[in-house]
User: Fold Nucleoside hydrolase from Parasedimentitalea denitrificans.
Amino acid sequence: MTARKIIIDTDPGQDDAVAILLALASPKEIEVLGITAVAGNVPLPLTQKNARIVCEIAGKQDVPVFAGCDAPLKRPLVTAEHVHGKTGLDGPELTDPTMPLADGHAVDFIIDTLRNHPAGTVTLCPLGPLTNIATAFQKAPDIVEKVQEIVLMGGAYFEVGNITPAAEFNIYVDPEAAEIVFKSGRPIVVMPLDVTHKVLVTKPRCDAFRALDTKVGVFVAEMTEFFERFDVAKYGSAGAPLHDPCVTAYLIRPDLFTGRHINVEIETQSELTLGMTVADWWGVTDRPANATFIGDVDADGFFDMLTERLALL
Ligand SMILES: [Ca+2]
Assistant:
């Protein structure tokens, strides 16, 4: 099996950081062509910096990190410092990265990479608002059909919303971008809150990260300890949900996940339900399926694999 070529589009974010570390720890399955930062959890100057911090923690300074869009297509940016802290990576002590930002705009990197690879060989892994991906699709429509698959974290059906009662954060921040991606016609795998709320960093799982006794293990333990306080207070859950790592875990171990191939549409009009992922889980419409919407995960298998991989960095 050759490693799958991916671009990680991200707004780190503690859970983004873990998703990136998992990918970088898994070169047999995943080749990270580049990381593209987008505004989301925190503004772009922080997300692009955080992406570089994560590469350096992993000892992978050779992975290019590009800065992308600093605001959604049509709306002012909404951020989530109340969840992720002021830096986006609150928890561990952070030092400024020494690796430079790559030259050029993230959107152009996405376009050039897809144009320079054979069709069906590059997978996009969005972990934040879909602004960079949608902008690339609008600027260079020829690249859309070259995308192998889009595996993204976003949306919710049974869990409904986390930033509003109806919408999940990534989709809510840029619903117009999400609509472009969901209507792209490319194969899409969605990791909604329905599944990400099942991968919780409980105390024993966090202790297992720390027990690796490596820079990466301690970093992940400190991030998830900070990140959990919000969800524990809000949901009374047992620990931090690892939303974005579901994306990279799926690339390595798809057998851990189950879902349904269904129609998913994005609400872009209603003030009340803006950014809702209207997922036809029960098949009550005849709208064509456009996404595999994941609903369940083997959480113990997920954490065993994640901890094993993090130990390799
Ligand atoms: Ca994210």
In short: The two ends are 21 Å apart (CA to CA). The first helix runs from residue 14 to 24. The pocket of calcium ion is lined by residues 10-11, 13, 16, 40-41, 127-128, 244 (CB under 6 Å). DSSP finds twelve helices and twelve strands in the chain.
